Sequence to fold (417 residues):
Amino acid sequence: MRRRDVAIDVGVAGLVFWLTLAILADGGLGAATPDERRLDLFGVLLAAVATLPLVARRRWPLTVYLVTAAASLVLLAFGYTLDLAIGTGVAAYSVAVAHGGDRRPVRRWVALLAVAAFVPSMTVLYKAVGVELHEIGTEMVTTAAIFLSLWLVGDRIRLRQERIGALEEQARRAERDRLRERTLAAVQERTRIARDLHDSAGHAINVILVQAGAARLLHERDPERSRQAIGTVEEVARGLIGEIDRLVRALRDDGTAELGVPADPAALDELLARHEVSGLRIVSTERGVRRALPPSVAWSAYRILQEALTNAARHGRGSAEVGLLFGTEAMEVTVVNPVARNDGDGTPAVGGHGIVGMRERATLLGGSLDTAADRETFRLHARLPYHSPTLAEDPLPQRADAAVTGRPSPAGPEPAP
Fold:
């Protein structure tokens, strides 16, 4: 139980005890009668039993009600004037909240009958001490109406608490589902990235084998070309080690990008052209000097741009502005497109797990991906560093041939040794 609830219950019990003492000391709510018993120590003790157990009304509501009801009836039996059993009423309300919708029928009916029996028990006690029923008719009707109202209010509060609890549980379940879906999307993206690494490593090893064979054959005949082949082997091996160190470090948790993605910047032009042919109006701008990109950067730029243009075509209004920046330390991709709106709410409709995958790619490279949407446009900006900030030296060679990029350029075949 929370401290706040305990403090509230202590305060309620103290207030009800004070009000009960005030009623008993004043001889009831009406005019005093000569035969009524004045408040004494025994009456104070009974008043305490009839009110102070309310401190535990949340933990044992039915038990507290039975104790307070019994003490109130004892007060009446000994002649004390208790026109309003406040403690018993508060306890009845707590019973309604706790047991009004109890799934155990026996407990629910016991609680209901216990509350319903209080007013008849008061009537029997008054009759036993010689009070005429017509003299207490108004008091009994009023007390019965108060107890009925308290039960109904408590039952409504219980229903409201159950609805709030169900909504909170639904929200928690939805959040768990969203987290599970985001995690699954990230894992799937990491799996594709790992496949990209596999392809890069396989191609680089093939290049190393070819160049090493050429170096062996040319060693005696053409030492200069043999040295060039050995230099190519060294560069490719260094680049491969860098790529493996870079991506495996990011994927070591439980990692998991995509087959057949060209690793040459010219592939981005082909991607833009394909989307234009499919009907998307594209305005593209390019800044900086194109350079050979590390495979992981080239593939991530390709996939991020591909996903962004797909979202622009699917959720936008047929156009997009694309900006490519080839900086000295990183490549940046920016896509801005007007967006369609969801029916009825006026908010932009933008993709699903695609953003998760794009952000995962950028993050694995030590970069970032930011998105922003308003009522008219959706903007995506990705920054992809050429080299991981965790590496002490640049492991990637800067040659523009296929041996550096790890895949053949779509612009032409791989040069022969």
